[in-house]
Amino acid sequence: MREKILGYQFSVLNFSISPREIVKHPLFSGSAVMILGTNITNFIAYLYHLIIGRMLGPATYGELATIISIMGLFFTSFGFLSLVVVKFVSASDEGELGGLFGWFLRISLKIAVFASLLLLVSIPFLNNFLYIDKKILILLAPILFVSSISVVYRALLQGLLKFNQVVVSSAVEVSGRLLLGVLFVFLGFEVFGAVFAIVISTTISFLLLKYFLSKLRLKILLSGFKDGKKVLRYSVAILLGSIATNSIFSSDLVLVKHFFSSYDAGIYASISTLGRVIFFGTSPIASVMFPLVSKRFSRGNAYRKIFFLSFFMVFLMCLSILIIYLLFPEAAIRLLFGARYLEGSKYLFQFGIFMSIFVLASLILNFYLSLEKSKVSIVSVITALVQVVGIWFFHSTINQVINVSIVAASFMFLALAIYFLYGIQKRSVF
């Protein structure tokens, strides 16, 4: 009976696979490490929001959540490097790695300086727009600078399929954020203390990544990489796509902070944090899929099973979390944030729909990027604009804000799905 179940073949779109193939597939083993490790990290991250949210209260927590969203938006200035590094590292020979890594380090330093200066110049505007203390906003500059270097180290490890080191470094960072954040908030430093804890934990994570890289005995070459122009051409599209994707993920919270009261922004921040369980719970699958598809594509090997398995796994995870949010919204809110945030329970399932559509669309987008079809990034750019413009004009209620995001994410998914099916018909995908 066991062998019969393991050997059963099921088919979708001319793609067939058995449970035995799934278990033995490198996507499954790599995803198992990433899902387990990343979800431990995410658990610590949500524990952070649970404890800090209760300590600060809705109004002050809304301010911290907005700061974290701003970090997400600014991280895009170098976060796109992660995908680019993974793409080229996974497709490179061992002899090319030293020069490639050195080239990316130089680029990341330039981006770090530019992003930090841009942030410092933007502080007066952010202060007036979001009503957040300038001293807190200044702390974002060192976070940006250190993280810009860390993203190259972490992406290099991911491109080399060193998933254990990737999840350990992330877990250390969020653990430091939690322990130090709780300490500083308890001592009375409130939001400033919580953000300063992020500065310290980000630095500790970087030092750990540097140690992991030294164990690989990879010699960093500051010259010798000759395909810089090819990387830059690919990077421009990835940059636009990353900015747009992070905007879809973060701009709604920033706009809610601007248009709504501090209390309402705190309520929205709680459902946003819970809704992102879907994003963070499924992101390890995309993180494993990307280098596997990229490596196989560059070598002319088959890769369609990797994508279909990834999509299937992401869909099941989204569906499972949505069922929980539909049946037990108040329990989820009460468990993580307490009774003061229960007003958000009526929006939780709705926000979960938005995140589910978004992560499925993002998976298709990442698949195309791994195939060097970077022009599809324009879809995410249009989606981000639709969301921002929509919320700007339609923000009477939180319900209306979420509906705008659902419409935007649905456009992204449908556009990419139609392009995907067209690619199958024309045999330009597989």
Task: Tell me what the structure shows.
83% of the residues lie in helices and 1% in strands. The protein is mostly helical and 430 residues long. It has one domain. Strands 1-2 form a two-stranded antiparallel ribbon. Strand 1 and strand 2 (15-17) form a beta hairpin. Helix 12 (304-327) packs antiparallel against helix 14. The chain is globular, with a radius of gyration of 21 Å.
What share of the residues lie within helices? over 70%
Low-confidence stretches: none
Q: Assign an overall shape.
A: globular
Please compute the radius of gyration using only Cα atoms. 21 Å
Number of strands: 2
Q: What integer is the average pLDDT?
A: 80
Largest sheet, in brief, is: 2 strands, antiparallel
Run of helices and strands: HEEHHHHHHHHHHHHHHH
Secondary structure class reads mainly alpha
Spatial order of strands in the largest sheet: 1-2
As a percent range, the share of strand residues is under 5%
How many domain modules?
1
Number of helices: 16
CA-CA gap between termini: 34 Å
